[in-house]
Specification:
With about 450 residues, this protein is of the alpha+beta class. It folds into 2 domains: about 240 residues, paralog of FGE (formylglycine-generating enzyme); about 170 residues, no CATH class. The chain contains 10 helices and 20 strands. The strands form 6 sheets. Strands 1-2-5-11-6 form a 5-stranded antiparallel sheet. The radius of gyration is 27 Å and the shape is elongated. The termini are far apart.
């Protein structure tokens, strides 16, 4: 009867899912993975879309010898970010500037260990002050949802496979020590080492599971133990499946426990958090995208975050160029406008500024490169263009070598147009890419 009751409650909650689910907002690719610099060490965090999942001893995780992961129960989660790897010794040193417990400088890519829950909290406090981002430990529900693969889950027993050794460092293969992060296969969400290497602190206090669980659960309200999830190099495969729960006193510091960080997105998914020293003022948010109308056409600009944030567009199409100028572009390549001089580009930006009544200008190479490095604009067209340029230039070199021999027999070899020269026709030394940007002067909250 209890099992039937559990099934009925779960089905009822699933029926409520469409009513409780929030309307999804399209998130640009540039925010699927965040790249954050912490004193020269890069932290990568993947966005995990919220959803509903059965947490605990589901059929793919069930083990008759464990009881703390029962009953399986339905959990609703909001979107969140979680680091692709565990915090490494290198990152720890960059943030904390000391390592009192053990000198691990010879193992920079290994996950940090011998770290208590309290030390993890101090690390996060310092990381916040360096980056201006509200980092935290993942909740237990977030950790399990991410380890299972989120909404892309294939219902593996371990994080990314039913074969534990392909995705994690576990006993006895791991030996009695940690290994460099991200050397095994990632799971469905691109997360590494959620099975094995070191177990990971979560934010929650330990408490038994309840069938009736509120959205975004964060553990028991009272209690001294803190949750630790995931197997480690010290655990065998038999007790390292994803639903296994462990708990320790928060001052516990042992070699097989480390942690990874998480991040809560802004309440408004169309906004991007900018570091200003204040964490709640509305001025800390700028819209991710700007839509500008130009003579009946829409042009989308994406935010490039930084000390002086600005907005940048994708490549200008040949049709938009014709719409604004009334002229055909000198060259059309993959549907894009190219081949115009610097003066023609500046004139186009001026016409766009008048049409939109906004200060638009041509982006510099540095601004374009910054947007590319941060994933704000897509490199796909750029890569396609580079391939075509290389192919054409190889053809030109080959024909140049053959030309003297061809002339001897009275044959003239026609050279294809060099796309690099075409792109900057009439002003080849002024290599400015055709991208328009919209700038804002950002004022931090007082």
């Amino acid at each position: 009867m209890p099992k039937n009751r559990c099934l009925i409650i779960s089905l009822f909650l699933l029926l409520l899912l469409p009513l409780s689910a929030k309307k999804r907002t399209l998130i640009p690719d540039s925010l699927r993975t965040l790249t954050i610099d912490a004193n020269g060490v890069i932290i990568m965090l993947n966005r995990i879309e919220g959803g509903a999942f059965m947490m605990g001893a589901t059929s793919d995780q069930y083990d008759p010898d464990t009881y703390t992961d029962k009953p399986a129960h339905l959990v609703f989660l909001s979107p969140f970010y979680i680091a692709t790897t565990e915090v490494t010794n290198c990152l720890w040193r960059a943030v904390m500037n000391e390592r009192e417990m053990l000198d691990l400088s010879g193992y920079p890519d290994h996950p940090v260990s011998f770290v208590s829950w309290y030390e993890a909290q101090e690390f996060i406090r310092r990381l916040d002050s360096i980056t201006g981002m509200p980092f935290r430990l993942p909740t237990e529900a977030e950790w399990e949802f991410a380890a299972r693969g989120g909404e892309q889950s294939k219902h593996f027993r371990f994080a990314g496979s039913n074969e534990a050794d392909t995705v994690g460092w576990l006993f006895p293969i791991a030996g009695q020590w940690t290994h460099p992060v991200a050397r095994k296969r990632p799971n469905e969400l691109g997360l590494y080492d959620m099975t094995g290497n070191v177990s990971e602190w979560c934010q929650d206090r330990y408490g038994p599971y309840q069938l009736s669980t509120p959205p975004d659960p964060c553990g028991a309200d009272t209690g001294s133990f803190r949750i630790v999830r995931g197997g480690s190099y010290d655990n065998c495969i038999a007790n390292s499946h994803l639903s296994v729960r462990r708990w320790y006193e928060p001052e516990t510091s042992v070699g097989y426990i480390g942690f990874r960080v998480a991040l809560t997105p802004p309440n408004d998914p169309r906004a991007f958090y900018l570091s200003t020293g204040a964490t709640s003022a509305e001025e800390n948010y700028l819209p991710l995208t700007q839509k500008i109308r130009l003579k009946g056409r829409k042009l989308y600009f994406s935010l490039v975050p930084g000390d002086e944030p600005y907005y940048i567009s994708e490549e200008i199409s040949a049709s938009l160029w014709k719409k604004i100028t009334g002229l055909e572009p000198p060259v059309k390549e993959h549907g894009l406008a190219t081949g115009m001089s610097r003066q023609e580009r500046a004139r186009f930006a001026e016409l766009c500024s008048r049409a939109a009544d906004k200060p638009l200008s041509v982006a510099t190479i540095a601004e374009k490169d910054s947007a590319l490095s941060k994933g704000v604009i897509s490199p796909s067209k750029q890569s396609k263009r580079k391939r075509s340029v290389r192919a054409t230039q190889r053809t030109r070199k080959t024909r140049e070598k053959l030309s003297p021999w061809a002339e001897l027999i009275g044959v003239k070899i026609k050279q294809p147009d060099d796309p690099v020269l075409l792109d900057f026709k009439g002003d080849a030394n002024e290599k400015l890419p055709l991208r328009l940007i919209l700038r804002y002067t950002y004022q931090p909250a007082k």
